[in-house]
Amino acid sequence: MERCIPLSTMRINLFFILLFAVTGVTAEGSREVVLVVANESPIVAVSSLELRKLYLGLPVALQGNFARPLRNHSDEQLQEIFFQSAMAMSEAAYERQLLSLTLRFGRLQPEVRHSVEDLKDILREDDKAITYMWRSDIAEEDDLRVVKLLWLEH
Amino acid sequence: MARALNTLLGRILLFVLVSHAVLLPLLYLTLSHGTRVNAEDTYLDYLRGYSRFIADLIENQPVSMPDSDVVALMDSVVLGHDGVYAELRLPDRNLRSSIVSDADEQRFKEDFAFNSHDDEVYYLSMPVKVGEQEGQLNLGFSESDTAAEIARLHRQILISLVIYLLLAVLISIAMGVTLSRPLSGLQKVSRQVALGDFSKTLDAQSSIAEVVELAHDLEFMRHELVQVNTRLKTEIAERQVLEAKLRHSQRVETIGTMAGGIAHEFNNILVPITLYTNVVIEDLPEGSELRGYLLRVQRAARRARELVHKILAFSRQLEVEEKQPEDLAKIVREATDLFSSLSHATLDIEVEITEEPCFVYGDATMLHQVVLNLCTNALKAIPGMDGRIRITLTTETRHPSSALQDRQGLGASYATLTVEDNGMGMDAATSERIFEPFYTTRRVGEGTGLGLSVVHGIVLSHGGDIMVSSDLGMGSVFTIHLPLIPEGKPLLEQAPLRT
Ligand SMILES: Nc1ncnc2c1ncn2[C@@H]1O[C@H](COP(=O)(O)OP(=O)(O)O)[C@@H](O)[C@H]1O
Ligand SMILES: [Mg+2]
After folding, report:
1. Cα-to-centroid distance, B468 and ligand 1 (Å)
2. Would the CB atoms of A47 and B59 count as touching at under 8 Å?
3. Given strand B121-130, what is the order of strands in its sheet?
């Protein structure tokens, strides 16, 4: 009996394992969320206003091209960061705005993807596609490129 | 406790309390969660929008802002609404508001949801592009006002729900009372009805349709019950009277038959006694001792014959032959005259005879006997000197609805003869048996017990009936009914009389 690991200790261990798995914390430095396109994409810069318009479904020409925004639903925290730093509004307000703009202008809503690999594939196929993800997710990819820093861990 | 819960009021209260015990916490949780999320989201939207506005202000300058202007802007953010912390972090420098300290910087922990990190400050970070540099705008705003507002809203919801609960309890009490009051009223009356008190009506003082209908139905039932009950009571009473009469007349009949048989035999035995005694008396010289003895035998035999006749009169074996239409008024008058001339002067005899024609089909001598026997008994019942005997004769026409009279077989009209005295009266046990032959309460030698049985026999053989009502010490009333016949009608047309 005494040799058993107490349940609470096990829980804490499990918690940390999960935390590392979910947030993808790595040993090297602070995390970043970045806006990503394919290497051959004509898009080179996005202002914060353009970014907000883009993700509210409004037509935005970036360097003369109409970009195709993609939402990254692979990770809860990523979404929180997206709403706070990129959209500067709550999730509820974002959905509300999106709906009302869609109804007013009849625009398509940004597509939603749940897997990072999917997103990467779309970026590679469509050079107008643009999305956000952890910088760590594209560290290994040399055919994808960062357009803008969205968030930097403090 | 369990009994209180089994009342209407108890049940309603229990139901209201239980349902509210489930619903109110649920309602509270939903409402408070809703208001909290709403307030937090609103504040978050405001903070993010405001921060973005500040970031845009820095970003969208045609020429990048001098650092002093950025610091001034940061100061204005901290001084503004809920402002706590403000800095613009660039790769090469850090432009922080002059109002915040290094210690404040240590506290900066970025929030993504309201009320996280237990610091009552919402810290957030916005990416800013200043010239070619990527920077971070780090701002902090106090959460305490919004938290206080949320707490206030929660308190308000709680108070409203408590007031609501109290109101619900009050309303349910009122409802229970309005429901149960008319019901308990109904219950009280229906209990009285069950105990046999039908006097109160079942009426619900209520406007609730079901209760009113229930009261209506119960009242209908009570009404039916009352009617059935009274019908039953009169029927039972009638039956009891009839049964008593039947029992009585059967007994009298049996005794009469027996006595009649004995009297008949006796009469046969008396015939040779009387006959041969008379023969022997004729042959004996007057004044002889033997003749004296035989004269006594003759008297005794005559007395025996009278007795036998009385018995036969009672057993109605003397009827038929001498009957004819007779004026009952005349007979009663003669009999009472005879009686008053024989009785002593202190006796107050009152006679009241109707003027109406009063003809019966019968035997005058026998009817005479009836009046005399009744009067004699009355006289004997009066112990002192101040006695009063009242004899009345009236005629009546039968009331068509009286079922009782129908069964007595009396005709359409009949005479009522009453003999009333203020004597010692008799108890119920005595009056039960007085019509039996040889029943007497008098000492041996003083009464034969045949007087009333003879009266009974005569009245019955005339198609009438006789009743007595008496109480010990209260005097007695004998009532005789005799069927009347129309005056002077030929004999043959008379209906055969019941015996
Ligand atoms: N008017 C009366 N008041 C009280 N008792 C009476 C009356 N008439 C009759 N009785 C009772 O009825 C009994 C029977 O009466 P009855 O047949 O005339 O016989 P008797 O008179 O020879 O006793 C009497 O002994 C007496 O007790
Ligand atoms: Mg008598």
Report:
1. 11
2. yes
3. B94-96, B83-89, B133-142, B121-130
Written as tens digits, the pLDDT of chain B (499 aa) is: 677 778 888 889 999 999 999 999 999 999 999 999 999 999 999 999 999 999 999 998 888 889 999 999 999 999 998 999 999 999 999 999 999 988 888 889 899 999 888 889 999 999 998 888 889 999 999 999 999 999 999 999 999 999 999 999 999 999 888 888 888 888 888 888 888 787 888 887 788 888 888 888 988 988 888 899 899 999 999 999 989 888 877 887 787 778 888 888 888 888 899 999 999 999 988 888 999 999 999 999 998 888 888 777 777 665 555 788 999 999 999 999 988 888 877 889 999 999 888 999 888 888 988 999 999 999 889 887 788 999 999 998 865 555 444 445 556 788 999 999 999 999 988 988 898 888 899 887 787 888 898 898 889 888 888 999 999 988 999 999 999 887 655 444 444 444 4
Nearest CA in chain B to A49: B56
Q: What is the ipTM for the molecules in this complex? A: 0.77
Q: Is residue B246 part of a domain?
A: no
Domain finish residue from B101, B134, B166: B166
Distance from CA of A141 to the nearest CA of B (A): 23
Is the CB–ligand 1 distance for residue B370 below 6 Å?
no
In order of start, what are the domains of chain A with their CATH numbers? Answer: 30-152 (3.40.190.10)
Pick from B110, B129, B133 the residue to mutate for testing the A interface (most A CBs within 10 Å).
B110
- Select from B166, B181, B196 the last residue of a domain: B166
Q: What is the CATH number of the domain that holds B344?
A: 3.30.565.10
Instruction: Report the first-to-last Cα separation within chain A, whole angstroms.
Output: 44
| Chain B residues lying within 8 Å of A92, measured CB to CB | 41
Give the one of A90, A152, A153 whose C-beta lies nearest to B44's C-beta: A90
Give the CATH number for residue B35. Answer: 3.30.450
Query: What distance, in Å, lies between the first and last C-alpha atoms of chain B?
Result: 74
How many domains, in total, are found in chain B? Answer: 2
Interface of B with A (CB under 8 A): 41, 44-45, 48-49, 51-52, 55-56, 59-60, 108-110, 112-113, 124-129, 134, 136, 138
Amino acid identity of residue A134, one-letter, is W
In a domain, B42, yes or no: yes
Rounded CA-CA distance B248/B444 in Å is 25
For ligand 1, atom 1, the nearest C-alpha belongs to: B378
| Strand arrangement, sheet containing A68-72 | A111-113, A68-72, A129-134, A32-38, A144-152
**Residue B396 within any structural domain of the chain:** yes
Q: Is the CB of B45 less than 8 angstroms away from the CB of A151? A: no
Encode burial over A34-44: b for 16+ CB neighbours within 10 A, e otherwise: bbbbbeebebe
- Per the domain annotation, does B472 fall within a domain? yes
pTM of the model as a whole: 0.54
- What is the span of the domain harbouring residue B391? 324-493
- Amino acid sitting at position B244: A
**CB of residue B475 inside a 6 A radius of ligand 1:** no
